[in-house]
Fold this sequence. Notes:
By secondary structure, the protein is of the alpha+beta class. It has helices at 82-85, 104-112, 131-147, 166-185, 209-214, 243-255, 308-315, 350-362, 382-394, 400-403; strands at residues 6-19, 72-77, 95-98, 116-121, 152-155, 190-195, 218-222, 263-268, 270-275, 278-280, 285-287, 303-307, 320-324, 329-334, 343-346, 367-371, 410-419, 424-425, 446-447, 451-462, 468-474, 489-495, 499-505, 515-525, 529-542, 549-562, 570-576, 586-589, 593-605, 610-617. Helices cover 17% and strands 33% of the residues. β5 (152-155), α4 (166-185) and β6 form a beta-alpha-beta unit.
Amino acid sequence: xxARGRTLPVLVLVLALSCLRPAAGIYFFSRDDGVAPSPLPxxxxxxxxxxxxxSLAEWCQPVTQPKVELSEVFAxxxxxxxxxxxxxxxxKLTAIVLFDFFDPQIVCHAHRHKVRVLHNxxxxxxxxxxxxxxxxxxxxxxxxxxxxxxxxxNIDFEDPVGAKEPARAAYVQLVxxxxxxxTRFNVQTVLTVDVPWSPDCIDGRCYDFVGLHNFTDMLFVMxxxxxSQVVSKECLAGANAPLNRTLAGVRKYLQMGISANKLVxxxxxxxxxYHCRNVTHNGTVCQIDRVPxxxxxxxxxxxxxxxxxxxxxxxxxxxxxxxxxxSQSPYFNVKFEGWNQTHQVWFDNATSLTYKYxxxxxxxxxxxxxxxxNFLAAGNSSEDRTERDLMWGAVPRWNWQRSGGGxxxxxEFLSLVKxxxxxxxxxxxxxxxxxxxxxxxxxxSYAGSNVRxxxxxxxxxxxxxxxxxxxxDIAVHTLSxxxxxxTSIKMEVGIEDCLHIEFxxxxxxxxxxxxxxxxxxxxxxxxxxxxxxIAIIKRETTGSGPNTFNENETIAKYEIMDxxxxxxxxxxxRVFLAGYDLTPTMxxxxxxxxxxxxxxxxxxxxxxxxxxxxxxxxx
Length: 619
């Protein structure tokens, strides 16, 4: 190592736990790194503007903060009053869209908090191929933006467009022309486009998403209404925005080559209220009316959209409350006086939304968005204030540059330091001997989805201007003995008068190259089972209390039965673990995280209903 100037070599041995994604409170999200842009010229004065009604004239000017410095918390606002929008968490918001209304006072308030204000725009599909129509449309939208001191335009076009329709290319051309017109007015203006939850021609929207992405600052992925088309023999109530499907849709945009830095994941602050024709399976299954949509037999059109403010009140009177592990969503049954039928309500709350925010973080998206911010109650009751605190509290403080945040934290369990040389000058290569004797290494090295546990050898050369730091990881593997007691697992589970099975595994603790051996006995079968599968699930838990986050990963999945079983039948199980990248079970490591493994047994009937049982096993 060679350096000039006054130096002090210091060697440090560190045991550190680094959270790749913080488990609680505030989440930080990475952005694309790039060269800082050159200073931008001031925007030209608008040719025509409305009279400024703000208390300070500067609030009548568009936000001038460079767009590249922002990570987004983006919210739509429907027609509302100051009583409602004054309750928003303006310290977290970075941009709002005034949807089908305009209020100059909300523009003043937003600009006071350095929040951009956009207006929404739509166009006629039948006319978009006409160049004259596009030019006039662009001129109107940009003129409105300039007139009212706004920061940009959100295009919300949701008509079906076929992959070979001329309107597909014309839509991209319209966005390109709008982008150029906005830039001529003010290089800081923002252009965003709303897109479906997946690029797979959802509801006939086969847009050129890559082309749209090329001319916009952001694509707002509408991560809701995933049940607009449901192919099923039986129409059932279900989640508005299942977590796994929502994130799978976003991944498809990324696989198309669309930059994560241009994607904002929209989440619903509303739910669906379904009238149940019949309620079965102890209240968990609600059969709904068959309402076709675009040639598909079932859809969420059988339900009614309800804002979170109303559902929060209904939930206080729920007959039954449930949580869906499949969709990571809450739902409840309710029946008020005068209703002829039980209603089942599927919605998102602070818990389910937190999982979506974390999913967006793991994909390194530009941010998250809300439809819609005024769906919370604006009252001053303790219940209303609590609901607002929970919902806004779950929203990540995405723009950590402005809010004083920083990179994801790390926690050092152990730090041993040795000074290798006195202050002086380093003018040639030199070696320093060192040793750390009898260092405790209580935990095994680990690298997971949300957390890393590292042993690090770090050398630091202290200089006047900036220190030189180099690190080398040391892998630690702990040895253990076979347990003295390793009892088998035997349990009986089922549904009363429908299904009764007994499963048995030969051990409760396995080494990483072991073989899981077991059997499934069918004692009672009155359900038409189609097939059965077993999966190994790895669950990584970070945080504690209400800020606990669980990340599940399916390590392996096997179909162990195909066809309907009969009473008295026995199905053998044999799973070899040697072929999988497993880690030891880790329990409450420094009260920061845990890693556990589960055997997940799933039975699927002929109507695709799933019955499952999880069993913890010690690896």
